[in-house]
Design brief:
Length: 174
């Protein structure tokens, strides 16, 4: 299959947004024990750039989640495949996502992590596809608010595990 890629956000454009989020987070958490929780796999590049742009100390951990059903018709049921390795009790926590689409993944994780009694729990997403929501959930830090439903690849986002390594964000045209 031949797919063509159309650039939507260059490396430079993404960097500006990441730096902007990092600035907000750094000013909101000047002296707390901040834990960033990345959702694998998609968030790994965003998280790596974000933590290097912060000027406050952070601890990093990851979860890996799986949702049942096909990618286009999610049932809304999410399962933890790999859990956190550290306790978040009494800590300030930010969940880091590459993209929020239906909101089902982040909604599940937020509910799950709330049960562990963090001091605070916020959501940070590089891309927020607001029009696709199936559950009401809002991110606290957003890099790009996207109204159009583009199929996105690059900067961590994949199509059948390909294209995650592209430095920009592209739309995939079949
Ligand atoms: C993507 C993305 C989010 C989720 C968002 O992950 O990284 O975690 O989908 O979708 P939602 O808001 O509709 O729940 P995916 O399941 O493709 O796995 P990946 O991160 O390993 O690519």
């Amino acid at each position: 299959m031949n797919n063509s890629l159309k650039i939507l956000y260059s490396q430079k454009a993404i960097r500006r947004r990441v730096e902007n989020i990092a600035k907000q987070i750094s000013s909101h958490y000047p002296s707390s024990e901040l834990i960033l929780v990345g959702i694998l796999k998609g968030s790994f590049i965003f998280l790596a750039d974000l933590v290097r742009a912060l000027n406050v100390p952070v601890i990093i951990d990851f979860v890996r989640l799986a949702s049942y059903g096909s990618s286009t018709h999610s049932s809304g049921k999410v399962q933890i495949l790999k859990d956190l390795e550290i306790s978040i009790e009494g800590k300030d926590v930010i969940i880091v996502e590459d993209i929020i689409d239906t909101g089902l993944t982040i909604n599940f994780l937020k509910e799950e992590l709330s049960k562990r009694n963090p001091r605070s729990l916020k959501i940070c997403a590089l891309i927020d596809k607001i029009s696709r929501r199936k559950v009401e959930i809002e991110a606290d830090y957003v890099g790009i608010k996207m109204k159009k439903d583009y199929f996105l690849v690059g900067y961590g986002l994949d199509f059948s595990e390909q294209y995650r390594n592209l430095p920009g964000i592209f739309t995939l045209i079949p």
